[in-house]
Amino acid sequence: MLEAHALHLTYPGAERAAVAGVDLVVEPDEVVAVTGPSGCGKSTLLHLLAGVLVPDAGTVHLRGRSLSGSSSDGRALARRRGIGMVFQDGRLVPELPAVEDVMLPLLVDGIRRREARRRAMAALESVGLGELTVRRPTKMSGGQAQRVAIARALVHEPSVVLADEPTGALDRATGTAVMDLLVSSVRARGGALVVVTHDEQVAAAADRRVAMLDGVVSPAGAQGSASGAPRAASVR
Ligand SMILES: Nc1ncnc2c1ncn2[C@@H]1O[C@H](COP(=O)(O)OP(=O)(O)OP(=O)(O)O)[C@@H](O)[C@H]1O
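Structure tokens predicted for Putative ABC transport system ATP-binding protein:
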């Protein structure tokens, strides 16, 4: 589904690489947790997978199609359509009612407002926010706002959802509910989920754990499986 090979990225002026040669294969229907200490490169890896950052070296393929390298329109489109992103703080637009925010990825893709609104309403319904479609995120609880962010990541039906500490700002019960929702929404569509997390409970909900240290996948992490049943050849 999603395949990264030999990814490297050094931020300008940095002494060492934030991501220093990561290989990662995510299978369809798989939930992968990326864990590791602060600063080890988890978010950078996720942003490389999403195409938010362009690697200095290495490749990212989604369903066999290259997403990495210099960004042609075709690649940008493949990324936009194929990947959904959930940020730690949701990154919702404070001025926009939930439905307008969830419509954004569809409008960027040229879908007409009326159809975009219909699909955004359905996505909000599916995350249990059918009653709050016109509420602004500033008037929502943290868990509700994060559900809006999940609806926005899923509304264009991506193959892969990448989530950067989606429960980081939430209390435990709300975080568990949000993670359950994310996993079930992605699984219901046969998609894959990569979730960066510091939270043991979130990592335990994954099929497999990839532990990073100093910009690389630690050997123990490559073997690790949250469920105790490693999937062969998923991380090399
Ligand atoms: N925009 C940036 N410019 C320069 N250096 C950066 C930038 N973003 C991250 N870094 C550095 O790259 C390294 C990896 O950072 P990254 O945010 O990927 O780690 P992380 O594992 O996600 O950390 P955390 O768990 O604290 O979010 C760190 O040393 C960090 O200081």
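Helices lie at 42-50, 73-82, 98-108, 113-126, 142-154, 172-188, 200-204, 219-223.
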